[in-house]
Amino acid sequence: MRKIILFATVLFISTASIQAQKKKDLLDEIDKLRKELKTTKAELSDSKKKEKATLTQVATMEAQVKDLKETNASLLSNMGSFTELSKKKAQNLEKSLESLQQKDKQLKSINDAISKGDSIKLATLTVVKQALGSDAKIGVQNGAVILSIPNTVLFGENDKSITLEDKAKGILGKLATALNSKPDLKIIVEGNSNALNFKDKTLNDNWDLSSRQAAVIVKTLQKEYKVDPKRMTVLGKSEYGSDSIETATRIIIDPKFDEFYGLVKENMKNASKG
């Protein structure tokens, strides 16, 4: 009996010891699991923080990428505008260069026309000087050859005379020879007179007198020396056209400004074709 009780006691003690060991092991396992759970939670929290930081970084990068795309698009647009602007500027510069070249041609054509006109005037001046010598004061004024002959040489000492002196006809004959050698030249005969009184009722005033004196010269050139009347114009200036107290008749040769401008226009037209 005692053996049975002893055995039972030993068995109980053994069982209790085993159960105590199992409980201890179980508690250790629970403690281990708790530690692992705590560690896992900490790692999970850390991972969530990292994930949040990563998401924030990704959002920032996406925003930067968006900005970069917009900036790139703006740059491309600006580059296109700049290219177009540069192209227009280049075209404008090219047009400006063409315009300058055209103007240079036009200026050259004008200079050529002026040179040609000056050459014609010089030739006319030379011919007239050779023909008249010292019989008249000869010069160039406003692009025309001007002959100035005192009225006393043309009409004598009578300041109201409209009859040419013989010496005057000799001068006009020489002039006609020069004019007929250059049939393209135009002539204006400008009468200037400053007679003091007009008791003779055949003349009204200096306007009348200067016009008649100029007309007499033109008629003489036409009838006696065969100068084409279509080339000649009469102009009476009265006493208001006189350059000095002693009046003189002026013969203006080749005041063909219309032909000069026509020459310039033609040269400019030819220059634009070139």
TrEMBL record:
Keywords: Coiled coil, Membrane. It holds the Pfam family OmpA. Residues 142-259 form the OmpA-like domain. The keyword Coiled coil applies. Residues 16-110 form a coiled coil. InterPro entries: Bact_OuterMem_StrucFunc, OmpA-like, OmpA-like_sf. PROSITE patterns: OMPA_2. This is OmpA family protein.
